[in-house]
Amino acid sequence: MVFWDSNYNCNIVEDHVQHLTLQVHHIISQFKFHVSIVYAIKARTRQDLYESLNQLNQQLIGPWSVMGYFNVIMESSEKKRGRRHRLCRSLDFINCMEKCEMMDAGYSGKFLDIVKISWLEHIEGTYMYIMQQKLKRLAHKLSNWSKSSISNVFDKVKELENQIEVAENIYEVDDADQNRSNLQALYAEQIRWMNMENSILKQKDRVKWEEGGDSNTKYFHSVVRQKRKRAYLHRIKDENGQWIQADNVISEAAIRHFNHLFTQPQQNHDFSFLKRIDPMVNKDDN
Fold first, then answer.
1. pTM for the full predicted model
2. Chain segment 228-244, per-residue pLDDT in tens
3. Residues 150-206: pLDDT tens digits?
4. What stretch of H or E contains 230?
5. CB-based contacts of 235: which residues, under 8 Å, 6+ apart?
6. Contact 184, 144 (CB under 8 A)
7. How far is CA 1 from CA 9, 12, 17, in A?
8. Which residues does residue 235 pair with via DSSP β-bridges, in sequence order?
9. How far apart are CA 213 and CA 205, in angstroms?
């Protein structure tokens, strides 16, 4: 059973055994978004949940929020007691988050407080203008909050790469359980931050594509031309260390190089030295 405010209309998009997905429509502003409320049952059935969410990602258009109980964690820091967390148990969940282009909003109450305070600030104007200004202001405040509390995502990814390199060297010298656990925790943390980095880059690319419109075709072809230009060989060094250029000359030098590399010269094998070795097996042994 679902209850909602009279200012909203809710339509069921999918009633899955492990999630309920709704399209929410604000009547006044005409703003639409989707919400999926998840309740995962057992580990062996979670793959069905992930596949369903992946299919929804291909169908839904506009903002989409997924919340609820997945019955799995992304990293060991989310677990306080019990058995040690293993990264392999989280990989399917992490892959689902990545395929759906989702970012973990965390579990701090401060995020919701920022959204609530920003949204309740008064703005004068038409409904569409109020909605546009509130979204713009909220995006600015969330960006500042993200930088102050989560830190720079791209810097964090580079920092984790360095930490993993150190941890791998330590584990090679001493493969103790604690060193392995530390390394796995860093791997999980790296995957989480790389997913966030991926999501940010994809969102930026999507915005640029939508803003660009027809000019994207021109941009796409310019990118292809630049890649071809960088990949083009203008000159190379031959076997004598001399620079050569022109397509036909470079082609002939490449053919000579690989002919020499894969063709063995005729060799005369002299096995006369074998006569100096005393035989260990006689005719009777044979």
1. 0.42
2. 555 566 677 777 878 88
3. 557 778 888 888 888 898 888 888 888 888 888 877 887 777 777 777 766 666 555
4. helix 215-231
5. 243, 244, 245, 250
6. no
7. 15, 11, 14
8. 245
9. 13
